[in-house]
Amino acid sequence: MSKEKGFLSTKTIKVLTRRDFVSALHGWGIYVVTVISFLLSSFFLGRYLGGIRENNIRISPDPLSGFLFFPSVIIISLYLTILSSVSVSRERDQGTLEILFYGPVNSSAFIFSKYLKEMLTYLIIVVFFFAYFWGVSGLTNLGFSLGLVKAIFLSIFLVSCWISFGLFISSLTSRVRNSILWVVGVFGALWALYFGQGLLLSLSTEEMPAFLSYIGGAVSVIYQAVWWISPLSYLSRGMDAVNVGSIWLYGMSILYSIIYSVVLIILSIFILKKKGVRG
Amino acid sequence: MRKIVIFWGVFFGLLLHLQATSMAQAPIMSEQLVYSLNVYNGKGYGGAFTPQTEDTIYLIANKNSAIFARTTLVYFWPITAKFMAGWQTLNEKVEGSLEILKEGKLVKSLKPQDNSLYYPEGYWGENSVLSIDEEARTYYEKYKKAVDEYYQKISEFYKARIEHRKKMDEFLEEIKKRREAGEEFTSQEIEKSIPKEPKPPEGPKFYTTEPRQDYIINLPAGTYRIRIRAEGGTIIQDSQKNLVVFTSRRTGGTGYEIIPGNRWTMREPCDDPARIIYAAGKNTLYFNPFTQDEYNELYYNKLEDPQNPGRVERWRWVHITPIKDVTLLFLKGKEVLQRVKRLPYSVKQVPGATLGYNIIEYDQEKQPYEKPTFEGYKLDLSPTLENTGYQINLEKKTGGFFKGGKREVRLVRKENSRLLYALSIFPLVIGVVVFLKRRRRLFP
What we know:
The complex is a heterodimer.
Chain A: H1 10-26, H2 29-55, E1 57-60, H3 70-94, H4 96-102, H5 107-140, H6 146-172, H7 176-202, H8 210-226, H9 231-244, H10 247-275
Helix pairs in contact in A: 1-5, 2-3, 2-5, 3-5, 3-6, 3-7, 5-6, 5-10, 6-7, 6-9, 6-10, 7-8, 9-10
Chain B: H1 2-23, E1 29-40, E2 45-50, E3 56-60, E4 65-77, E5 82-85, E6 91-93, E7 97-102, E8 105-110, E9 113-119, E10 129-132, H2 133-180, H3 187-193, E11 207-208, E12 212-217, E13 222-229, E14 241-246, E15 250-260, E16 268-270, E17 276-279, E18 283-296, H4 297-304, E19 315-322, E20 326-332, E21 335-340, E22 342-349, E23 357-361, E24 374-381, E25 389-396, E26 407-411, H5 419-424, H6 426-442
Parallel strand pairs in B: 3-14, 17-26
Antiparallel strand pairs in B: 1-2, 1-4, 4-5, 4-6, 4-12, 7-8, 7-13, 9-10, 9-11, 9-12, 13-14, 15-16, 15-18, 18-19, 18-24, 20-21, 20-25, 22-23, 22-24, 25-26
C-alpha cells in the first residue's frame, strides 16, 4: 500500500475537507439554518422574559445554558445530520466517489474528511452562538455565564454524535433521497419515542386502559434498547449534565459522545469498504 | 301518548341513576399488609405508609425511625394518583418480630418498643424528637402533668376573672358616688386605682404524642431486607421489603425561601447556589435563609412518601433550621448597597370589598393579640436600580459570611425582548457579505 493510500492520509483528508468546507461556507444553508435556530431561541427567550414580566420575579438556573440554548442545538443537529447523511450517498449517486477512489483517496480518509467538514461547519456555528448569546446577554441582562460556555463546549461533542450517525446512514444508502428519508424517519421516530415515553410515564397505571399499558411497556423496552444507540439520548444526557451542574455527569457525557462518534465512524468506514464505491 | 310518557320517564330515570352512580363511585378496596412509618427526615419526623405496590422503604442512616406493620384496606385515589389507607375501617396490628437482613444474613431482630414524638416548640413547631421506652413514657407523663396544671390554672383564671368583674363593678360604683359628691379625678388616678385584670395562663408550649409500640430502626447506610417473623416462627406473607438507608451528600449549605411582596403566598425556593434570582420592575422580596442538607432526590422523596416519584441521578436540598442571627447584605460587586435585619411582618387584607393586601412591619404593642404572619429579611428592589448583576450574602454577627449564603440577583431588561428577533438575523448578514465577496472575486 502506498503512503498516499495509507489508513489516514493527512494530505488527502486536508484537501477533501477544505473542498467541502469552503463549499459549505459559500452556500446559504449554514446561515439560513442558524437564523432559524436563533429565531426559535428568541421565541422561547421572549416567553421566558414574559414570565418574569408577569410575576416580577423568577428563580431558575441560567436559562441561556439550559432550555434556551438546546433548541438551537437540535435544529442545527438535524441540519448537519441531513448534510452528513447525503455526503457519501450524493458522491456515490453522482459517480464522483468512484473517480475520487481512482486517486489517493480511500474509505477511511473519505469518511474522516466528511466528518471533519461537518465538525468545522459546526465550529463556525459555535462562533455564531457566542456572538448571539453575548448579544442576548447584553440586551436582556440575563448574563453570559460559565454554564453557557460549558453548554456550548459540550454541544460540540453532542453534535459529533449526530454527524457520525448521519455518516453511518449515508454509508448504508446508495441514493440521496433514501438517505434523507432514512434520517428524517429515524429522527422523527426517535423524537416520537422520546415524547411518547415521557407522556406514558406521566399517566397513572391505574387509570390507563389495558392496551395503553401494553403500549407503555413496549415503548419503555424500546426506549431502553435505543438508549445507547439514539443520538437524542446523548443530547438528553448532556442537557441533564448541564442543568444538574455535575462535573462527573458532564465529563461522562463528553466521554460517551466521543466513544459513540468513534464507533459509528469506524462502522461507516467498514460499510463503505464492504459496499464499494458503486454501492 | 302514554307509551311516549313512559318511555321518556324511564329514559330520564335511567339517566339520573347513571349520573348518580358515576358521582358516587366508591373506590375498590383491597386488604393489604402495609408498613406505617414515622421516619426522621433530617429536621423532624414525618408519617407515611408503604402499600404493597412499593417494595422499598427509605430511611436516613444513624437516626431512630419508627415503623410498624398493619393490615388495612387500601384504595387508589385518582385525584392524587396515590394509594390511600382506610385506617378508620381496618387497622389491625401484625404481631411478631422484625428481622433485618444484610446480604442474606440476619443482622438484627427487633421487638416493638414504646415511642412517642416530642415537639419542643409545640405541635406546629418545626422540630420533633422521637423518644423511646422510659424516656417516651416520662415525656408523655410530663406533658399530661403540664396539661393538668394548665386546666387547673384555667379554672383559677375563670374564678379570678369573676372576682375581677365584681371588684370592677364595686370600683365603678364607688367612683360614681364620689363624683356625685363633687370629687374630681384625673385619668392617671383612675388608672392607678382600677382593679387589675387577671392574665389568662399560657398552655404548655411543648407537645408529646401518646406512646405507641413500633419497631425502632437505627442503621448505618446500606441496603437491607426486612421481614416479620410471627410468634410461631413463620415469615408473615407480604412482610418482606427492601430497606435503603442513606445519608446526605453535602451538609451545612444555605438555602432561601423567597416571599415576593406582590404574591406573598407563592413562596419561591432558592436552594441551589447555581440558581439566579431574576427580577424586573419594582418589587419587594422577603428572604428566609435556612441551613440545608443535600440528599438524593429519589431517596428523599421516597422517605417523605414511598409513593412519591424521583430520579436517582438528581439531588435536592432540604431545609433544616432557619438562620436568624445574621444580617442580609445586598451587594454590587464589593459595595454594600443595603444591610437588612430580620423582622416580623403581618399581612393585612385591604378593608372593604376590594381584593388585595398590605405587608406591614409587625408591632407587638399595637397588635398584642396577633402573631406575625412571617419573619424575613426585606429587600426593596427599586426601579431606579441599574439593570445589572447584584448579589445577596449573609453576614455573621462575629464577622465574615455565612457558608453558601451568596446568590446572584439580576435585574433583567424586559423592554428589549423584541430586539432579540432582529439580533437573530445577523448570521444572514454575514452570509450576504460572504456571497458578495465571492461574487466580486468570480466576476471582478
